[in-house]
């Protein structure tokens, strides 16, 4: 029986290796094209004789790439920090406090999961533009902070923490604010790391909202910049160089936190 | 659930809770009221007006909804989205299920394979679109390889009949890793003793899959089907980057129609109505699939 299983393994591993190769192939193609000397038609005819970083330094010094990268970084990092703090605060209150309307409020938060953001795109745009938020960082960031998945995840996690911890601190005269910063946040560190990765990726890869709200060249995020670069007079090599630059932070985040990310999806069902 | 949500605690501590509880929820509550509940009400409200880009509007009753039902642009976009979903969902769930089963069986370098297969999921649809557009181009990867073996180039994004499958492949490539992870978790929860018993009874690999694995996996499979169907109905980024809704309107999806009516024609009232339609469609799909699941499990 075991013998039959191991004999089948070789073929299955080969199949898995082929699928894996096909999965990474587009990334490899992107990388080779980005590193090919300008004017050289490499893939699919041949691999380039020499590699160059000219295309990457080229796109970085033009087309506003640095600015767009900075905008994406601000959009993602500010969102991560604010969502982690506000969602933990709300999650703590929903898990450990009693206040009127608590359950109704929690369910109304959760109900918004059913509403796709695209259905709110027009009124949200009108609202932000009425408040003069078009082409501003707050206009870009603030509407994306109402995150029910984050609140629900934090509430589920904090519920499992023993009440005695918080009660003991309060009996000792600790303020609620102290309890939050010194107990709740440190205790939720593992789940905060996971959630942080997700929120970062959601924002770094976000497209439709930045596309409509950050229209000026100065305010564009990297995804919008990459999409607009397309129509302009750039070579394939330059386009792939820009694509390569845009994907680096995702890969870094992924490799740093692969274990967290993979484990948490299977546990919590977070969806990007 | 044996544990009460608030737990037991001294009453004097609990007394302070109503205020502090609300204060802790307040920042998120404000965000939700202003950027979720208000726009939702606004969306419904705007669908009964001819709201224009300059902020002026008149009530138009049900005009937008009547227009929706007779507008070929909208009805075609609905059809395009349905066809796209009919290709994307089986493709993605099929690949996710296949790779999940493979990863669950193979005992060599599983972590590495899993990581590699999940990799595209951490990148953006825009990036996927940029890379794959070149892959599909006439002087791109696939046609370059085809030319080597003497085939005519294929217009993956230029032919009306090929554009939706081509787009579905891109999104499936970008997204299957997530469903794969969920399905792996589902497979891991099947007790080994069940499979072992089936094997002892002489069940073939197919019979074990059909009569042991599949029934156990059904709820997880349904969950994956729901989220992928919802994802299919929201397709936009790859279309914006790769086809702009074309050729003609062969890839003009629901969300693309919403974007186009809103930000090319500045017909905000009508675009908001398309948004309501999208919301209702996704709601109905979730409810139908939930009903089916309930019937399966009871």
Question: What labels describe this entry?
Answer:
heterodimer; A: 272 residues; mainly alpha; MetI-like fold; 2 domains; 14 helices; 74% helix; B: 298 residues; 13 helices
Can you tell me the CATH superfamily of the largest domain in chain A?
Answer: MetI-like
Distance between the termini of chain B: 21 Å
CATH class group of the largest domain in chain B: Mainly Alpha
Q: Describe the global form of chain A.
A: globular
- The poorly predicted ranges of chain B are 1-15
Low-confidence spans of chain A: none
Q: Which range best describes the helical content of chain A: under 10%, 10-25%, 25-40%, 40-55%, 55-70% or over 70%?
A: over 70%
Q: How do the helices and strands follow one another from N- to C-terminus of chain A?
A: HHHHHHHHHHHHHH
Biggest chain-to-chain interface with counts: A-B, 97 and 104 residues
Coarse morphology of chain B: globular
Number of structural units classed as domains of chain B: 2
Largest sheet composition of chain B: none
Provide structural commentary:
The complex is a heterodimer of chains A (272) and B (298). With 272 residues, chain A is mostly helical. Chain A folds into two domains: 52 residues, no CATH class; 206 residues, MetI-like (MetI-like fold, Orthogonal Bundle), CATH 1.10.3720.10. Chain A contains 14 helices and no strands. The radius of gyration of chain A is 23 Å and the shape is globular. The relative contact order of chain A is 0.14. The N terminus of chain B is likely disordered. Chain B has 298 residues and is an all-alpha fold. Chain B is globular, with a radius of gyration of 24 Å. The chains are: A mainly alpha (272), B mainly alpha (298). At the A-B interface, α1, α3, α4, α5 and α7 of A face α2, α4, α5, α6 and α7 of B. Chain A: Keywords: Cell membrane, Membrane, Transmembrane, Transmembrane helix, Transport. Chain A: This is ABC transporter permease. Chain A: It is found in: Cell membrane. Chain A: It is a multi-pass membrane protein. Chain A: Its main location: membrane.
